Amino acid sequence: MRRTTARRDVRLLTLTERGELAFDVGPDPRTIGVVLRLAGPAPPEAEIAATLADRLADSPRWSCRVVRPPGLLPRWEPMAVDTAAHVRTLTLAPGDGAREDDVMAAAVRVLREPWDLKAAPPWRVTRLVTGTGRDAVVLSLHHVLTDGTGVLATGAALLGMTPPLAGSARAAPESGGAAAHEPGAAGAAVRAPARAAAHSPASAVAHALGAVRTVALGVAELAAGLGPRAERTSLSAPIEPGFCLANLDLDLDGVRRSAHHHGATVNDVLLVAGAGAVARLLARRGERVDRILCSVPVSRARPGDTDRRARTGVLRVAAPVAAPATAHGRPGPTASALLLHTAARTRRRRRFATGESAPLLAFAFESLGRLGLYRAVLRRQRLINMVVSNLRGPAEPMAIAGVPVTHVMPIAPGVGNVPVYVTALSYAGRLSVTLRVEARLASELPGLAADVRDVVDELASARGPW
Which pathway, per its entry (predicted)? Predict the structure, then answer.
């Protein structure tokens, strides 16, 4: 078996990472992932494990488990990793592999598997063998390991994902197996003077000023989202174990043209489409709402982070929705009018979008978790109705061991009483939009997905004026 050991960089979990542990209150594991649809059979387990072993030392956190010593803060502890133990195969029943719903159901089973954070690094690579000659690979990991901005970037690096015409069946590592650990040794030689500089008076002052700046910007980011509470609807109930997925494959350039035509962004289009679809779902239940409160993650990259974790805060946006008809029977605002309104609102919010609310939120999450109140608070919150995320993926097609990746489907975790998550990822000119809903909404998911597509199509055909 191939084993690799991380650099000896034992350290405490950051405040944001401890916040993710506090967030892990169920009913399902705090797992994020991506489903990579392939143009051919998935590479063998041994080949994937060998690639991971060659590259794992370049992402130290992926070779660490989480330990929680009694009375102390949790910390990352490097360990020897048997990469073969993190790679497995799930074979779909005959006939199931040809149906997209069955592939997504298999992905749900993978993402619902629990984690033992103290036993091994919390990540897995699962081959989904469909029997059609076009398999899939699911990369799943606990959210403490990285975030949505880092899962595909780090996963692509570890899996050796390359452009399809790169040539070899498996991309060679940047350095040989023995030399892969040399950066850690070299880093140790320079870390000693770096640590000394970190404890200098000037460094202490800079750290204090940085903390003040973080608090000020974080408070401003949170204040930008202040407003009325989310309306209580039949969807406002604690989510139950299990969830379902639907995925839309959209033309990225088409969505981008629609957005720019309205002076908006792709994220604005997702807000209007997602909120509009939820409003239509409620209308079919006989409920009417004027707005849907959305949580929008805001990320800022952290240079030098080998695991590509961004600092992610949140913006709270009230997305207006159109009622089926006005009191006088006239149609409500068009999707174009709603997009113009939403774009103006998010432009004002984005002035405060720095990602610096992340440590403030993490502190609040961890504090509530220590008091045993976090689960109860999340199940009763009235801040948001849904979560809308938009991630930027590779602009060019990629491949695993020479097998082209035709489609990438992002999957976000769920928590509290938020039943609908809209997660988009751009990849090779396409926009993959995944809808995650709790299990009790399974029968309504096809209609929800159709409504999202209808709103996107309506915006694409709009030419103004509004």
Answer: Lipid metabolism; Glycerolipid metabolism; triacylglycerol biosynthesis
